[in-house]
Amino acid sequence: MNALICSEPGVLSVIERPKAERAPGEVLVRPRRVGICGTDYHIYEGKHPFLAYPRVMGHELAVEVVEPGDSDFKAGEVVVVNPYLSCGTCIACRRGKPNCCTKIAVLGVHRDGGMAEFISLPAKNLVRAEGLSADACATVEFLAIGAHAVRRASLDDTDRVLVIGAGPIGFGAVLFATLSGAKVTVMDRDQERLAAARDLFSIAGTITADDSVDAQVAAATDGEGFDVVFDATGNQGSIEKGFDFVAHGGRYVLVSVVKGDITFVDSDFHRKEMSIFGSRNATSVDFERVIAAIRNGQVPIDKLITHRTTLAGAVTDLPRWATQKSGLIKAVIEIA
């Protein structure tokens, strides 16, 4: 079978390797759509903190069941993949948080992922999605990241929310924050992305991350700051600046991850009695929340998927899209 491999930072190629075989207790599947995530771009660029090369990337997956084994899935069924393989016994798993399992193996990061013609996966990591297209199934995982972050923040319709970072993960947070009834503002440096946010979602407004950002935040919140701030930029400077935008008694949710330390002014943190939340991956509850929203027509799938390629085409397209973002929201690899 063919697989797209990142052998080292900056080096992609399609290689031929033995066809994946169904492991005991698992299901052999054929990836049909693979969303290209910020994680994949970071792996290509050598910026991911949890990765060893070489690696087959890909964790945003719509797959077709080929050999169901002892599971109750049917051959030919198209399903969503929950790419977070957890141990089931550690303290996080015992407390219902397999998304931060102490021994977690994320497809495409800790073990080879779905940018290949076949892959064997545990049946428990396949999620039924009757009525969803392959395209829609491929969007569920990245939207679930935003849904999980919103659930962490416990939003309601009294909250003024700021989402920093108008990329796919940020858009997931925007979508589910608005569905929670919150009044949402989006911040980014890129005017094209801010325009996309206004086109896609019912938001209160946008803020340009420039030299006047403090004044813009003050104007949008009567000088009080936002009740909840989500950072989805993956940028250290942005994360540190985000502390300034949180209101007294507010919550700050860090959705993105960076290498290195994040610093903040302790006296300001205590003065505001601010709460900081880490938000990692997603759980089955979040996957089901996204699938329900898609079924209800609340997710603009056709507008979210803007670029398409193939396994072979991704060798040149993925590096180009890592730097050329104009018009790009979500790119998917189609595997015939």
What would you note in describing this structure?
This protein has two domains: 2-128 and 300-334, Quinone Oxidoreductase, Chain A, domain 1 (Alpha-Beta Complex); 147-278, Rossmann fold (3-Layer(aba) Sandwich), CATH 3.40.50.720. The strands form four sheets. Strands 3, 5, 6, 9, 10, 17 and 18 form a seven-stranded mixed beta sheet that branches. The chain has a six-stranded parallel beta sheet with strand order 13-12-11-14-15-16, with helices on both faces. The chain has a three-stranded antiparallel beta sheet with strand order 2-1-4, with helices on one face. A hairpin with a 2-residue loop joins strand 1 and strand 2 (11-16). The protein has 336 residues and is α/β, with parallel strands linked by helices. It contains eleven helices and 18 strands. The longest helix has 20 residues, at 134-153.
User: What is the arithmetic mean of pLDDT?
Assistant: 96
Helix/strand/pairing category: alpha/beta
Count of domain modules: 2
Order of helices and strands: EEEHEEEEHEEEHEHEHEHEHEHEHHEHE
* Computed Rg: 20 Å
Largest sheet, strands/sense/barrel: 7 strands, mixed
Briefly note the CATH topology name of the largest domain: Quinone Oxidoreductase, Chain A, domain 1
Count of alpha/pi helices: 11
**What's the CATH H-level superfamily name of the largest domain?**
Medium-chain alcohol dehydrogenases, catalytic domain
Low-confidence segments, ≥5 residues, pLDDT <50?
A: none
**Can you tell me the CATH class of the largest domain?**
Alpha Beta
Q: Assign an overall shape.
A: globular
Strand content: 25-35%
Helix content: 25-40%
Count of DSSP strands: 18
